[in-house]
Amino acid sequence: MLKIEPYRPQAFIDFTRAENVQAYQQALAKVRAEQLGRHFPLIINGQARDTAQRLLSTNPCDTSEVVGSTAKATIQDAEDALAGAWEAFNGWKTWTMDARARVLLKAAAILKRRRLEACALMTLEVGKNYAEADVEVAEGIDFLEYYAREAMRYEGFGAAETTWYDGEENGLMYLPLGVGVSISPWNFPCAIFLGMLAAPIVVGNCMVVKPAEDSGMIAGLMLDVLMEAGLPAGVVQFLPGVGEEVGEHLTTHPRTRFISFTGSRNVGLHINEVAAKHKPGQRFIKRVFLELGGKDALIIDETADPEVAVTAAVQGGFGFNGQKCSAMSRLVVVDSVYDSVVGKFVERVKALKVGTGEENAGVTAVVNQESFDKVRSYLEIGRAEGKVLTGGEATGNNNGKTGHYVQPTIIGDVDATARIAQEEIFGPVVTVLRARDWTHALEIANSTEYGLTGGVCSRDRARLEQARAEFEVGNLYFNRKITGAIVGVQPFGGYNMSGTDSKAGGPEYLGNFMQLKAVTERW
Ligand code: NDP
Predict the structure, then answer these.
(1) Three-state SS letters, 192-207
(2) Is the pLDDT of residue 1 over 90?
(3) Which of 139, 239, 267 to mutate to test the pocket of ligand 1 (most atoms within 8 A of CB)?
(4) How far is residue 246's CA from residue 231's CA, in Å, rounded to a whole number?
(5) pLDDT of residue 170
(6) pLDDT for res 158
(7) Mean pLDDT for the chain?
(8) Ligand 1 surroundings by CB, under 6 angstroms
């Protein structure tokens, strides 16, 4: 067993303090001086391997700037990575839980020391402002710390309760599954990337990890951290590449035992389908964990504290430009307070500063051209489906910088069946819906195919209790923003088309990556 203090989430850095802002700016300058243009090769069997082709990371807030690059894995690299991971599995699975957990704890200690460096790189690579980058790196550290401790519960023959039966010894053993594939998104390129690999490896699996194309550098930096922590060769095979090519090859491969995917609904459903197909030589039914998109609603009723409610709406709707699966993309307001609440919401959003991550702007640029085009097309749809209350333009530039800038936008009086009330936009665009009363508001909130996060701002106890039972989401929040789940505190995962609800950062999560063997000896 590990001898360590109980798990506690990391505190966030307070950026109202001048010295913390200064430290962040110094980290940005250092990363600019030392890492701009850095190239991250593949890592297969502990060895760096470069490829003929490269994937470039560009700064979303200034698209003329190339931040760096990663290698671009080929199908042969994927084959080698999978074969090497199975080879490494033979050794890694024999390590004790605490020995594996120590690698995570050491990695957490290193990441704590390199916290601002990781933040600064994310600011440049995906455009996160200081607080958004900081809470994410804190979450990454939390995943390492939390899963290391959780693993202790599964050590040994007596780890799971079984009923005594006279004349026999009965018990359960938790065993790792084998080699899994992790495919992660760009919007939490540090925390989700780390969490999706840390959980399976700490219980003895080996992983082939494919980060998103837009955020390969921060993933590469996390590999630096893991290797510095002493991770044995082959346990994590780092394979940046193109989703439709190398990602597809990995998810359909007969030697992939399980798939952990976080990303969009459509890609997730596609993976679910292809992973279900048996291939010649395949000896197992793949387990598939899918954590997908959202169309998350916050309800504000007539009893709510307007200040609390509007703050929750601004933070939930526009944190990291609405590019969170948990983002409040629908605001449902009860008719009797609609005008006053929405009026205040619009005022607050108009005051948000648009700019670069480096300037620590409240709203920065969306991640890439594809996202920009998608958000722009929804703005056009939105103009027809509702009334633009603020914003409404995808400008593509800000203060002389060319980037994927979209004005923070609120579209009001939208029908609950409208496309902008049903489809995930993934940008700084909030759809506002008018509900006749509380009952109607809850009905609207439950009227999409998604079910990730949701919230209610109300001072009516009975309504909160009703929402607790009937609001169909995996993560429900009262009288606060609906984003920012903390590892171990708010285990995270969605219902319905938002995913398989594997609840990352929760007490059930590690169990996903193990199988149980029941062993009986008759005396
Ligand atoms: P995508 O689904 O576009 O991509 C996710 C990952 O899948 C990327 O690494 C991508 O690679 C890869 N990929 C794409 N096509 C395939 C394929 N055919 N086979 C295998 N892999 C493939 O999502 P985004 O990266 O744009 O992320 C945003 C989405 O993620 C949003 O919908 C958001 O709601 C969701 N999300 C959900 C979370 C949750 O916990 N529920 C948390 C965070 C985000 P490439 O980069 O090369 O395209």
Answers:
(1) HHHHHHHHHHHCCCEE
(2) no
(3) 267
(4) 24
(5) 95
(6) 82
(7) 98
(8) 183-188, 192, 210, 212-213, 242-244, 247-248, 251, 262-264, 267, 270-271, 291-294, 325, 424, 426, 452, 494, 498-499
Give the pLDDT confidence of 192-221 residue by residue, as tens digits. Answer: 999 999 999 999 999 999 999 999 999 999
Q: Decide: helix, strand or coil at residue 261.
A: strand
Atom of ligand 1 nearest to the CA of 183: 9
Sign of CA dihedral 226, 231, 233, 239: negative
Q: Provide the pairing of β-strand 206-210 with 236-238.
A: parallel
- pLDDT score, position 428: 98
Q: Would residue 325 show up in a list of annotated catalytic residues for this protein?
A: yes
Closest by alpha carbon to 255, among 9, 81, 473?
81
How much of the chain, in percent, has pLDDT values that exceed 70? 100
Helical (H) or strand (E) element with 176: strand 168-176
If DSSP codes are grouped into helix, strand and coil, which group holds residue 144? helix
From 325, 498, 502, mutation site for ligand 1 pocket: most ligand atoms within 8 A of C-beta? 325
- 492: β partners: 504
User: Residue 105 corresponds to which amino acid?
Assistant: L
Burial 244-257 (b: 16+ CB within 10 A, else e): eebbbbbbbbebbb
Task: Tell me if the pTM is above 0.70.
Answer: yes
214, 186 contact by CB (below 8 A): yes
pLDDT tens for each residue of 428-460: 999 999 999 999 999 999 999 999 999 999 999
